[in-house]
């Protein structure tokens, strides 16, 4: 069961973090240069079909893995031990990712045009940085700590 959860967690990470790195490094600069919002919208409309399920898998398997390592959810927010701090940071990254993603989805993407592309960029870049930090902290959890 542990191996299955970890495999699903790593697969989800490849989709979530990999997809955001492709968006931020290849599609966003081109869309900004060409002032072409359609480039982002066509990527988003295809990516979100795997991206959103991948995020759900990360949350479910992440909480299962966290519970296995520290079966006291109240301690996850205490930052008292190394494991608790890593789990706390993961949950913080999740909160930040949700806040930026919901704001982009509700406020920016419905009216996306060339003039508002920079404000979308200021959502894509932080969410991509958070997605890489999820991987760094996750590997830290499995290798004795990185914080
Ligand atoms: C998009 C979000 C996430 C990504 C990209 C991500 C990525 C990763 C990666 C790459 C690992 C290392 C796996 C390995 O060592 O083989 C990992 C481990 C871990 N992650 Fe996540 N993670 C995410 C969300 C979460 C969440 C929300 C939690 C819940 C608190 C979480 C809890 C854990 C735990 C506990 C481990 C250590 C598993 C172990 O070594 O036993 N992750 N994560």
Describe the structure.
The structure is a single chain. This protein has one domain. The longest helix has 33 residues, at 2-34. The protein is 81% helix and 0% strand. Helix 1 runs antiparallel to helix 2 (37-69). By secondary structure, it is mainly alpha-helical. It has helices at residues 2-34, 37-69, 82-108, 117-142. The chain is built from four helices and no strands. Protoporphyrin IX containing FE is lined by residues 6, 9-10, 13, 16-17, 55, 58-59, 62-63, 65-66, 69, 87, 90-91, 94, 131, 134-135, 138-139, 141-142.
How would you summarize this macromolecular structure in one to three sentences?
It contains four helices and no strands. The protein is mainly α and 147 residues long. The radius of gyration is 17 Å and the shape is elongated.
């Amino acid at each position: 069961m542990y191996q299955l959860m970890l495999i699903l967690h790593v697969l989800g990470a490849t989709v979530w973090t990999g997809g955001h790195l492709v968006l931020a490094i290849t599609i966003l600069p081109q869309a900004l240069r060409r002032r072409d919002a359609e480039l982002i919208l066509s990527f988003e409309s295809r990516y979100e079909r795997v991206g959103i399920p991948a995020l759900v898998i990360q949350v479910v398997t992440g909480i299962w893995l966290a519970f296995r390592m520290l079966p006291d959810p109240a301690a996850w927010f205490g930052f008292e031990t190394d494991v608790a701090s890593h789990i706390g940071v993961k949950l913080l990254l999740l909160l930040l990712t949700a806040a930026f993603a919901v704001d982009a989805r509700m406020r920016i993407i419905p009216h996306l045009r060339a003039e508002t592309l920079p404000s979308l960029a200021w959502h894509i870049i932080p969410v991509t940085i958070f997605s890489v930090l999820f991987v760094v902290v996750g590997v830290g959890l499995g290798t004795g700590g990185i914080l």
